[in-house]
Amino acid sequence: MWNRHGMHGRLRRSGVTLIEVIVALAIGAVLAALAFSVYRLTTRTISSQIEWRSHGGAGAAAMDRILRDLVCTVADSDRTRSGFALLRDGARNSSLHMYTAEVDPGAENLARHRVYRVRYSLVRGAGQGGRLVREASLAAEGGLAPEAVEEQLEGRFDGFRVQVFDGEAWHDQWSGATVPLAARVRLEFDPPHEDVVAETLIPVGQRLSSGP
Fold first, then answer.
1. Which of 42, 47, 184, 195 has the greatest CB tally within 10 Å of its CB?
2. What angle do CA 101, 61, 127 make, to 5 degrees?
3. What is the pTM for the complete model shown?
4. For position 163, what pLDDT does the model report?
5. Taking the mean position of all CA atoms in its chain, how far away is CA 146?
6. CB distance 175 to 188 below 8 Å
7. What pLDDT digit, counting tens, does each position of 68-100 carry?
């Protein structure tokens, strides 16, 4: 009788171990499937990034340039207007105007900077694609405005669109005595006709003071 109970106990213990093995195998299969899914997702992400960079490397540099100017936008409280303007240039494109600060290349003190009047616009030619042009001139001093220097950003573009945010809604046009709180820039490459969108806050985005 004792031996029968002892054998029954061993069989029960053996049965529990078998169930644990089955559960462990099931969990292992689920984890393997999850790991494979993560691997596939990671591979697809890396592949898409490599493909985008191969087509849009120059576009990425252009986007970085535009965002830097927006982040460094300067608002002059002595002006009756902010100097920031966003105009619609056709159905799909924008013309962006602003004052932006850049470090003075000839100064030893990096805190010293110069203010430039900058304009971005898309110029279309007879061939395929358009040229994204940045025109910059040193802010006028004493009423004398220096000649603007034109810089063509690398890449071929089919669209350049900017929207600005006032704290409540996005707008396709902007002018007046205020600077928007944020901007959204959309670049469309030509080819492969893909959109790249980036947003940035504008630190000086606030109403300019009209008095002491």
1. 184
2. 110
3. 0.65
4. 94
5. 31
6. no
7. 999 999 876 555 567 899 999 877 799 999 999
